[in-house]
Write a structure and sequence with these properties.
Number of helices: 3
Strand content: 35-45%
Distance between the termini: 95 Å
Number of strands: 46
Helix content: 10-25%
Length: about 650
């Protein structure tokens, strides 16, 4: 029970005792009156008890309601005096109203109930009969309104942007929708975001977002879109002894800088905005030249710009080995290689299905297969080797292969002179099938090696003909497709010029200095031809006819391959590979190009040696039976010049200039 039964029983007994004690003068009427009075008093007492029990029950219910509201983190909407003036009615935000009686005698009630409710500021306080209190916040009806996370966004062409929104005072009838005002923009609404696809190419635009509560109230907001803009100043190379590195520029977005490569020697910096300047500290470098990459990120974490930071080597030697690996085929069988800024490519020369392996420059243990789709003209096989030589075609069009240089490869024609030369071009990247074209040459052993002149868009491929040792087959290209030189019904339908070379006509390649003069028919004034016996330098005599110069078959340049011409730190260099006489090793040579095209022969004869390095730390036995090819390629990656070198069936090594 919620009140004292002893107190009630005592009150009833006292009333009855008074009535029975007056019996000296018996009077029926008086007795009847008294009995009526007792009955009336008992009825009144019973009614009072029932009322008390109802109010105690209401008090208990109120306690439970307040406890539930506290647990649910509910709000109090209002506290009003009840109609009988003996309590209050509390209205909650998310629960039914509750009546709290406040006129109960705490001494009569055994349970702890609410004794008082007060409202002050933004809080309703409930005080219990034991003196403890609980509080609930007051709820205020908010005005109907739409709000957006941002109202102006900087983006790039083709971005998909998500902008969070919220609606205050929303009801079940509230609807949120969006309208792309500017052409090319596509917008939609989810439960939490406005999702906008930015057009490509970019145009400045706006999107309208509105909320309607279904009762005549509408709230409209606008999102404006501007293109991300960033200009980064040139970052100078860090000296070997280390020091401060400053990356600065101007941006219309808030940026943060994060070192994503090279964090072991470059310390990161905090965020900034507008005219930004990030300062880093570079540790001293006692090894080879190295690079780091710093990503400039937006507040959303998107990379807006990546800056390469290069540090000079602390070594005195011109180049240092980065790694060396075995030829990535089961039985060696490699004749040629090339490289770009991501991979070193090695071709398998073992007949059957052609294969090309791509060795990661950064992680040489990661080797992937280039997708090769070999082609057999009707009635012919794929030649002695389905894939023999690989080279890179310089590319000047961002729409081709993502702006990167293009891989090209050839097969090696059969010895009987019937096999056509097939050329493969990976214009869509190495993970896609290549395009191909067939050269109806009619000669033997084309494709052992070839030389790239010009670009993917307008260039030539030169193949040395070993049928009689005096012809270079010229295949002109436009946008990666073969064209024809001269008359189509000639045996050499793609153009040629004669080179009267003497001596063994073994595997070699033909090349020119990049600054050499070409005549009106596109023929170079002089060229270099390499063979297993030596090198020959030839000078144009008339049209496409060439005669040997005074210098031919120089033993000091025997078995040299893969001539590369490049500029580094303001000077011009030539790198090439040279296979040893016993064919069990290959040497990387880097010489300074002191004379240029004016005296290319003189430069090679002088052989101003800046760097010479054996590919193998310890010469290894190799398949030397008629195999003596090597190759060399170079590429610049984030300001660092890399040179790859290979010996046939031996190994592949990567060096970097310090």
């Amino acid at each position: 029970m919620f009140f004292s039964m002893k107190k009630l029983f005592f009150a009833l007994m006292l009333g009855l005792a008074v009535a029975v004690g007056c019996t000296q003068e018996f009077d029926d009427s008086a007795l009847n009156d008294r009995m009526d009075k007792i009955e009336q008093d008992a009825a009144a007492l019973d009614a009072a008890l029932s009322s008390l029990m109802e109010r105690v029950a209401a008090a208990e219910k109120a306690v439970q309601a307040v406890q539930a509201a506290v647990a649910a983190e509910d709000y109090v909407v209002s506290v009003t005096v009840s109609e009988d003036g003996k309590g209050v009615v509390v209205t909650f935000r998310n629960a039914d109203p509750v009546f709290i009686p406040l006129d109960l005698d705490a001494e009569t009630i055994d349970e702890v109930v609410i004794a008082d409710v007060t409202v002050e500021g933004e809080t309703a306080t409930f005080t219990y009969t034991d003196g403890t209190t609980v509080e609930l916040p007051l709820y205020h009806e908010k005005a109907f309104a739409l709000s957006l996370e941002v109202s102006n966004v900087t983006v790039s062409a083709g971005d998909v942007v998500k902008v969070a929104y919220a609606v205050t005072g929303a009801t079940e009838e509230t609807v949120v929708d969006v309208l792309a005002v500017s052409a090319g923009y596509v917008a939609k609404v989810t439960e939490t975001h406005v999702e906008v696809t930015v057009p490509s190419p970019f145009v400045k635009g706006e999107v309208l977002v509105w909320a309607d509560n279904g009762a005549g109230k509408t709230s409209i907001k606008k999102i404006g879109f501007e293109e991300n803009s960033i200009s980064v100043n040139e970052v100078e190379k860090v000296p070997a002894e280390g020091g401060e590195v400053v990356i600065s520029g101007v941006s219309n977005v808030e940026l943060a800088a994060e070192v994503v490569e090279g964090a072991e020697w470059l310390t990161a910096a905090p965020a900034t905005r507008a005219e930004f300047s990030f300062t880093f500290t570079a540790a001293a470098n006692e090894g080879a030249a190295r690079t780091a990459k710093v990503a400039l990120k937006t507040a959303a974490g998107d990379v807006l710009y990546t800056v390469a930071v290069a540090q000079l080597s602390g070594l005195t030697e011109m180049a240092s080995k980065v790694w060396s690996v075995d030829v990535p085929f089961a039985n060696g069988q490699s004749r040629n290689m090339t490289m770009d800024s991501e991979y070193v490519y090695v071709a398998q020369a073992a007949g059957g299905e052609g294969a090309i392996k791509a060795i990661s420059i950064a992680y040489p243990t990661q080797v992937k297969d280039v997708k090769v789709k070999t082609h057999s003209p009707a009635g012919l096989d794929n030649g002695t080797h389905a894939i023999s030589c690989v080279r890179m075609l310089p590319n000047t069009d961002e729409a081709v292969n993502g702006g990167k240089d293009v891989l090209v490869a050839s097969n090696l024609t059969t010895g009987d002179g019937t096999e056509k030369l097939t050329v493969y071009v990976w214009a869509n990247g190495i993970d896609a099938d290549p395009n191909y074209f067939v050269i109806d040459s009619g000669v033997r052993r084309l494709g052992d090696k070839f030389t790239v002149i010009g670009t993917y868009q307008a260039g030539e491929l030169w193949f040395f003909d070993f049928n009689d040792g005096n012809v270079v087959i010229r295949v002109n290209m436009k946008d990666g497709v073969a064209g024809l030189w001269g008359t189509p019904d000639l045996a050499y339908a793609t153009g040629r010029f004669g080179v009267p070379i003497a001596g063994p006509n073994n595997i070699g390649e033909c090349m020119v200095h990049p600054d050499v003069t070409f005549d009106g028919d596109g023929n170079p004034t002089e060229l270099l031809l390499t063979t297993n016996a030596g090198n020959g330098f030839f000078t144009q005599t008339e049209g496409n006819a060439y005669a040997a110069s005074a210098w031919t078959e120089d033993p000091s340049l025997s078995q040299t391959y893969g001539y590369n011409f490049f500029e580094y730190n303001g000077k011009n260099y030539i790198s090439y590979a040279q296979v040893s006489a016993d064919r069990d090793n290959v040497t990387l040579n880097i010489i300074e190009d002191v004379n240029g095209a004016a005296d290319f022969k003189g430069t090679l004869e002088a052989k101003t040696g800046l760097f010479t390095k054996d590919l193998l730390d310890v010469p290894a036995a190799a398949n030397t039976a008629g195999h003596g090819l090597g190759d060399c390629a170079t590429a610049e990656v984030d300001g660092v010049r890399y040179i790859a070198v290979m010996g046939q069936n031996l190994a592949v090594a990567l060096y970097q200039l310090n």
